[in-house]
Design brief:
By secondary structure, the chain is of the alpha/beta class. The chain contains 9 helices and 7 strands. The protein has a 5-stranded parallel sheet with strand order 2-3-1-4-7, with helices on both faces. A two-stranded antiparallel sheet has the order 5-6. Helix 1 crosses helix 9. About 30% of the residues are buried. The structure holds adenosine monophosphate.
Length: about 210
């Protein structure tokens, strides 16, 4: 059986992580997120995590070889395929991926920059995993989690300077992937502005 390699492509804040959940359930495939894997490595203070932390906090990209290595190792265990969130992010990564797991579909989550800045700078989270989005999802008590009463914090790379850097890098390094996948005839663009459920539906429709 040919495995499904579905790439969720989009700028930081376009909702790749959020929408990957419904797609994963629909297709019964695991989500492989390089951002999640790298943040785990940072939290565990592994050699990789120690190397990646400062780069990630500044909103820059971790070295291609490192990220390609962790994805390749992970995909070797996913025989039926997976949904990729946050990888590839450069042409070098996309070409490497074609060598070990050719992409079958790419969903481009289309969100204008103005909306992305609003989303990223309004994102606050709790260590329990709950995510708030000011002004769309506001906690009952300012700065405190509704679920566990802990203080909310902002991801280091959601702070204004890092957000600016992440968007710059998206335009320079990641956007060329749109043309790369369009030429391969595997690209579908979805308007990703709107309610989460609404966008989920658009994605599922695009996958039919
Ligand atoms: P994300 O959660 O996908 O926004 O990723 C958070 C951070 O992890 C990024 O800003 C990068 O520093 C790093 N990262 C995640 N995926 C990649 C990738 N494919 N290539 C390089 N760096 C990455």
């Amino acid at each position: 059986m040919k495995s499904t390699i579905l790439v969720l492509l989009g700028a930081p804040g376009s909702g790749k992580g959020t929408h990957s959940k419904v797609v994963a359930e629909k297709l019964s495939l695991p989500v492989v997120s390089t951002g999640v894997m790298l943040r785990e490595a940072v939290a565990k203070q592994t050699p990789l995590g120690k190397k990646a932390k400062a780069i990630m906090d500044a909103g820059k990209l971790v070295d291609d070889e490192i990220v390609i290595g962790i994805v390749k190792e992970r995909l070797a265990r996913e025989k039926t395929g997976c949904i990729l969130d946050g990888f590839p992010r450069s042409i070098v990564q996309a070409k490497a991926l074609e060598e070990f797991a050719p992409v079958t579909t790419t969903i481009l989550l289309d969100v204008p920059d103005k909306e992305l800045i609003k989303r990223l700078s309004g994102r606050w989270q709790c260590k329990c995993g709950e995510i708030y989005n000011i002004p769309n999802k506001v906690p009952k008590k300012k700065g405190v989690c509704d679920k566990c009463n802990e203080r909310l914090f902002q991801r280091e790379d959601d702070k204004p300077e890092a957000v600016k850097k992440r968007l710059e890098i998206y335009h320079k390094d990641t956007k060329p992937l749109i043309e790369f996948y369009r030429k391969k005839n595997v690209l579908v663009t979805v308007d990703a502005v709107g309610d989460i459920e609404e966008v989920d539906e658009r994605i599922l429709k695009a996958l039919k």
